[in-house]
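Translate sequence into structure tokens.
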Amino acid sequence: MNKTIIDPKINLNTSLLNNLNNQDKDLPISVLIESIITKIRLDYQNITKKDINEELFTNKCDLFQAITYYTFQDYGFSLLAVQTQKVISNDVEGHSLVIVSRENQYYLIDLTYKQFFIKNKCQKENYIIDYKNQIILLSPYPGYYYLNNPDNFWLAKQLIEKGYVLATLENLKIYFDSFYLTKRGRYINEIPTISNINGNTYLNSILKNEDTIHYTREQLEQLGFINNINRYQKYR
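Result follows.
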């Protein structure tokens, strides 16, 4: 029985790892990104002994943000550490992710987005309301946004399956709107299905409010997630 409102399968194509062992600097960036994400996911599965398709990744965003950040850094990408509360406000669902760039191409990478699509957390009944003051105290998970905007489900499916999407202004709006609509402290007559914030506003906030990585390389090495740090200097 599915625990989530969508359940795209993660295909760990081990042949992609061959791309990380050659000197081909002409490899398409999207293929290199998929190859690196596959390595991160395989490493996680091997270390934790958990099936990556059964994992919900609850409360693991800081860990995966750090693993993603350092691993992509080793492959020569420029990076931005991102936290939803810094981009929007402290009264939305907090979540950590990374935006990577290379050759003026930008990608949003989130390997734990699946945690926000748990069925019993994505229902209208999840609103907790102070009826005396007509204020929302708690909202459904970000996945609830997609139930109200089904045409955007493709982005959630791609993020869960592939781990990344292009960081276009349109995609940034979809992604961060899903968090904006978890905003607490609003009046109950102020529950829209989309925000009035555009992608450019989200982008400017991302650039002005970079997050702090919560794990050091040494801590990740001790956990077994980062190794051979200098191995990938050939990509720089």
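Note: The longest helix spans residues 29-48.
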